[in-house]
Protein 1
Amino acid sequence: MSRKFKYSPELKIKACEEYLSGCFSMLDICNRYDITYNHKKGTCSIYDWLYIYRESGAEGFFYSAKKNKEYSKELKLQAVEDYLSGKGSLNDVSAKYKIKNTQTLRSWISLYNANKELKDYDPKGEVYMADARRKTTIKERKEIVEYCINHEKNYKDTATRYDVSYSQVYSWVKKYNVNGEAALIDKRGRQKTYDEVDELERLKRENKRLKRQLEEKDRLTELLKKVKEFERM
């Protein structure tokens, strides 16, 4: 299955060339081509594209569209240590080690600061294809889902950050969007049927059902009172 990209290589090249021409600002180009611009931080994807363009020219975008870049454990550690020791900004270090974008470097820094191991990575799509990597608690699943949603539903980066599979993250987010946190507690994302539960659970459900009926009846009674009061006015 071919990979889909939010921005085409042709658009990235055009954005870089227009910026380097000096005729347009970053914000102008973002507005022209509907590229996401972070007004709070004053950054956008074009900063990352410029490093690729300066390093490899237009061909760099077509190469990266076909294949993920390979990163060794040693390269990750060196890049993280360079940044943390003040040897360069996120953009500087990313350019030095030919890292695809600053978000990738940020994820390595987060793992490093959390005392999690930085591992070798080869672009074989293991994040996408892998089965469930490890068991997770409800607390972890909630954290993973919240992180993914808050980062524009970037399932791949989320899976890498928390050492789970792409399919796990995708499934949890989908269930969460439909049924909320309850879907993360039940791994199947659904409530057990009446025949699947014991007698105590059945009684609890019946009690809840009767309680809802009473609440609805009370609301209806209150509504009728208000209608009658309104009619007498």
Protein 2
Amino acid sequence: MPEKKKEAQQHEILRDAAGTLFLPAKVVAQIAEEVARRIPVRQRKPKKKSTKIDNPVFLDTSAIIDGRIFDVINIHVMTGTFVVLESVLGELKRIADSQDAVKRERGKKGLTLLDRLRKIRGVKVMVMQDKNGDNEPIEVDEKLIRHAKAYKGRIVTCDYNLEKKASISGVFAVNMNTLATYLKIRAVPGEALHIKVLHKGKDATQGVGYLDDGTMLVVENAADEIGRFLDVIVSRVIQTTAGRILFAKKI
């Protein structure tokens, strides 16, 4: 009888006053410990901190080879951290190793200008490793756009198509050719200029000279004035796809 009574008391403690079945705290602790051993614990990987770049400016291969961007940087018109992707460096090296003498020289010039820029005090230059989201090959232009967008930067290029593609993607691109056009001398009809005639024009009677910004100036009846400085007056201005051409007459 005592043993049966003890067993009955053990069964009774499994139910509370309302008759709801429950387990003793010791048993619950043992079950929880067993479950914890069997379920793998997932450890959270620490998030990688994204590197912040101060006002990043991504240089395209065409702009580096063109070289005018380095003059703009030297006079501090454009500031920030100038970023060169490894893929852009790879393109420059391939051009510098080209069998074509002109391409080879342009590639070497670009690499030389980059090296000089890196040594200028107060100018920040960094080479950035390409970060691809997948294993698919990506064009250099697309890499430039992706990186500029990720780091909220700008692109400097001489490539019209890259400029437009970047604009569509929401990335601001500076085209050095467009910038040079904006900076050209704004001569208007009736304006007097002092110009040196360098060679003949398409017409046998024309002489051709150039302004300091490279704008062509065609002077009527100046074919016999080659090598001389003339005072001329602008008669008309023609806009072409290659730029503006000024026509003038001798004063």
Protein 3
Amino acid sequence: MTFNPSRRALLQLMSVGGVVFASGLPREARAGSKSRPQESDFFFLQLSDLHWGYDGPSNPRAPEVFPQVIETINGSAAKPDFVVFTGDLTHNTDDPAVRRKRLRELKDLTARLSCKVLHFLPGEHDAAADQGAAYKELFGPSYYSFDHKGVHFIALDNVSDKRGALGPVQRDWLAADLKKQPRHTRIMVLTHRPLFDLAAAWEWATEDGANVIDMLLPYPQVSVFYGHIHQEHHHQTEHIAHHAARSLVFALPAPLSVPKKAPLPWDAAHPRRGLGYRAVAEAAAWPPILKEQLLEPAATEPETLEKKAT
């Protein structure tokens, strides 16, 4: 496999989500090794906080967003190994029938994606009201692990419990899962809420997140990818890197920057500002074309990226 997607194709994917480059090789093997097997390098796409069913002033075009995202992904020549959805697939409702309808509609939409390997996580909008019952009926287990090209992925559920916790049963499962992994294993954790206390007053934390991080710390190569906060954010817990994805539908203010958390106002002149545009170089050294040309400031708008790509 040649790991060399074109710049234009990657920009298309970056316009809708987080493009994450990874390698299953240990750091020492990646550094300066001319014999590195290319098939160990890959990238995946993180989409988060779709809020299917949202109908509000912070995005009057909300119903159009995900169908457009699907068209963009399908039209890009850069093909991710898989797509991961890190929660809040749907917007909150107190009506169980509406919740199931929205989840079913969202699942049907994802079937249109040309990438058929999809991994889902619930958000609190999907699962908190019924402890994940409807989500599990349609999408399966709310926490699980899988391996891909030398990387061990762990998907956690810190939303079905209304306290925003994993709880003892899931922590025991995580401990057993980690026990099977050699210390040099590259681990990527997928979750909805941040595992660290970013803004507990806004529920931007995981109640037992410190316990989870303590379980992960013995492994020297761990990264966490999450959603929930609707903005780009990067954090380091010792050697563990945490990366947040932007929402596809509406943005939220910076942590504790305003008295009350609420979606940012709709900007008709820049309808995509603050939504879904992020790229993370993770694990593998970026191919030269990416290192030289794709490291853009976080605030760069997609219009500017497309102009530079021409």
